[in-house]
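hi support,

uploading two proteins for the ticket. first:
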Amino acid sequence: MDSDPFGRRPACHRSGQLSYDYSLFAPADATAPKVCRDFVRLVLIALGRGGLVMPATLCTSELVTNVHLHTKGSAMLRLQVQPVRVRVSVFDESPDLPVRRLAADETCWGRGLALVAGTADAWGVAGERAGRYAKGVWFELGGG
């Protein structure tokens, strides 16, 4: 018996064979990393890509946290889920390129891009603008 009170049936497709493109705009606020991380987690679970949740949420959190710490504006997150890969791009309003630092063992800061580089299959800086957003940093994860 259908659980939908209107008798609708779920869509007859396989999410692993389709491509999806989602966007989320996050204000310049300390809650942005959690909101973006939760958004990525929920979409990946809904599309049956649960195996990518941990690395995707870690990398998303690092990139959005960098926007919050190093710029004064909002962020735009773009999540592209394709059959063979997941790509997350985080755009911000600053034209300044990100700098991958070598953090000393005793410091608490400066490890974000190194974590992304060590976790993702690929990462980089987007070559295009997205509306008012000056640059984007992206990462990709494969498989699923």
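and the second one:
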Amino acid sequence: MPENTSGPTDTAPTNLLLSSNKVDSTKVASRDGDSLGSVHSFMVNKRTGEVTYAVLSLGGFLGMGKSYYPLPFELLSYDHVADGYIVTVDRRLLEGGPSWSNNAPDFNQAYADRVSNYYGVAPQDLSLT
């Protein structure tokens, strides 16, 4: 029997899933359609395999001066028409939230609680047991 060499590629889009290699630089916009920035990374829960936070990259020019904002993933929705994420919080609230520009914080339970409290969502248990 001949070998099937026409299998799916790494970059083939699907209806529901987004390949991890496509996440970086996915557009992020406000509810009003204003461009906010892009996804820098996702924080994945090691126990459940679910995305818990999206780290958004905002601002900057030519890679300099960017700020990174962790946002509970439940506050984003995917718009397949715009091929990007829509943030359900106001831009001013987002820009006033926990962030960093040079050195990422230790994303431990205390920091996760700070992010959750700021956005008024249920805290996530990040313990490994």
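thanks. also noticed: The chain has three helices and six strands.
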